[in-house]
Write a structure and sequence with these properties.
Layout (H helix, E strand, L loop, with lengths): L1 E10 L2 E7 L3 E6 L6 H13 L19 E9 L2 E9 L6 E4 L2 E2 L12 E4 L4 H5 L2 H15 L3 H27 L5 H44 L5 E6 L10 H14 L1 H7 L10 E6 L2 E2 L6 H21 L5 E5 L7 H11 L4 E6 L12 E6 L2 E4 L2
Parallel strand pairs: 3-13, 3-14, 8-12, 12-13
Antiparallel strand pairs: 1-2, 1-4, 4-5, 5-6, 6-7, 9-10, 10-11, 14-15
Helix pairs in contact: 3-5, 4-5, 4-7, 5-6, 5-8
Bound molecules: adenosine-5'-triphosphate.
Adenosine-5'-triphosphate binds next to helix 1.
Family: Belongs to the RecF family.
Keywords: ATP-binding, Cytoplasm, DNA damage, DNA repair, DNA replication, DNA-binding, Nucleotide-binding, SOS response
Protein name: DNA replication and repair protein RecF
């Protein structure tokens, strides 16, 4: 799979942009703030319908414009697919596939499989569980796009259930009865357990498949003394076989158990939206113990493991390394270059071209404010 062409209208700093890309290595070179990451972010948005930098869509639209459009031609197995997304802040995105509108934007997921490593990924190691859950769910969707629907159904249930709990909490506060609210809550328990078990089973399978790739990737990048490993941490405790029926029952039992606490706090306290991925180096958790360099290598290894796993599934995703090489010492640069040299399409961004190892100096693009030009 590779991106053959990207066109942007009013996306971030680009008023209008059209860039043709080739398979193999492309290096986007530009000084700080010139728009390298903006271009990468647009591709990431096509792959995940989300930005890796911001939680809302407004910053994606060029200042002063009403909406942004990303058009992306992707070649997969010799066939070309055209994905078009219109990002309208505060409204649902509009999406077209091969020029025909699709009912839901998430129908374009899977058209572009991409693994992006960016400086923000340090959050995977040092940040809150939400970053790690997103990492897992994005990979789940990249492997099996139907999980986008599972995730959306689950999120909807949590929203509705939290609204009900909040009402029960407020009613209780003013001394009212809670019987009415609780009967509806039980219906939402069933929905939560149903969709939650499906999501949980998917994540558990994913973590089991990903583990060996992660250990291998960390070892290759860091040549570390300690082995890197991952484990899924669930509020359900150790019920961690990806058996949907058993997980559904475990979720129902856990909801029953925390009923009082949930009403007291007015929020759903159990389910995959509260889970985490525990990252370890040897016997120690990476969070709080790993050095800056180790954390950086761990985050990179998580992305490389995702890339490796997708490839072992028979999917050759586009690999993007945004501003990575400047952070690495010479040994790590060369090891990373050797690991990714055979990527089907690799996009590398840098401010200083000498930071990129010679084996990765493919086609060069110069990025200056508002334009991207192929170097002659
Ligand atoms: N919505 C927007 N409208 C207009 N300009 C924007 C918008 N969002 C970001 N920019 C501009 O885009 C530029 C940042 O681009 P980008 O993050 O791609 O830089 P970069 O080339 O990756 O730089 P660095 O090497 O520092 O990471 C900034 O100048 C910023 O002001």
């Amino acid at each position: 799979m590779y991106v053959r062409r990207v066109e942007l209208t009013d996306f971030r700093s680009y008023e209008r942009l059209a860039v043709d890309l080739d398979p193999g290595v492309s290096v986007l070179v530009g000084q700080n703030g010139m728009g390298k990451t903006n271009l990468i972010e647009a591709l990431g948005y096509v792959a995940t319908l989300d930005s890796h930098r911001v939680a809302t869509d407004a910053p994606l639209v060029r200042a002063g414009a009403a909406s942004a459009v990303i058009r992306c031609a992707i070649v997969h197995d010799g066939r070309e697919l055209l994905v078009e997304l219109e990002v309208v802040p505060g409204k649902a995105n509009r999406a077209r596939l091969n020029r025909s509108p699709v009912r839901r934007p998430r129908e374009v997921l899977g058209a572009l499989r991409m693994v992006l490593f960016a400086p923000e990924d340090l959050e995977l190691v040092r940040g809150d569980p939400a970053a790690r859950r997103r990492y897992l769910d994005d990979l789940l969707v990249a492997r099996q796009p139907r999980y986008a629907g599972v995730r959306a159904d689950y999120d909807r249930v949590i929203k509705q259930r939290n609204a009900l709990l909040r009402t029960a909490y407020l009613t209780r506060k003013v001394g009212g009865t809670r019987g009415q609210d609780l009967s509806t809550l039980m219906v939402w328990d069933q929905h939560l357990a149903h969709h939650g078990a499906e999501l949980l089973a998917g994540r558990l399978e994913l973590v089991a498949a990903l583990g060996p790739h992660l250990t291998k990737a960390y070892d290759a990048v860091a040549a570390g003394r300690a082995a890197a490993s991952i484990a899924y941490t669930s509020g359900l405790g150790d019920v961690l076989a990806p058996d949907r029926a058993a997980l559904e029952q475990a979720l129902l039992d856990a909801l029953q158990e925390r009923r009082t606490a949930e009403i007291e706090r007015g929020v759903t306290l159990v389910g995959p939206h509260r889970d985490d991925l525990t990252l370890s180096l040897g016997d120690l958790p990476a969070k709080g113990y790993a050095s800056h360099g180790e954390s950086w290598s761990f985050a990179l290894a998580l992305r490389l493991a995702a890339y490796d796993l997708l490839r072992s599934d028979g999917i050759e995703p586009v690999l993007v390394l945004d501003d990575v090489f400047a952070e690495l010492d010479a040994g790590r640069r060369d090891r990373l270059a050797a690991l990714v040299a055979d990527a089907g399409q690799l996009l590398v961004t840098c401010a200083v071209p000498e930071d990129v190892p010679p084996s990765l100096r493919g086609v060069r693009f110069d990025v200056t404010l508002g334009s991207v030009t192929r170097a002659q």
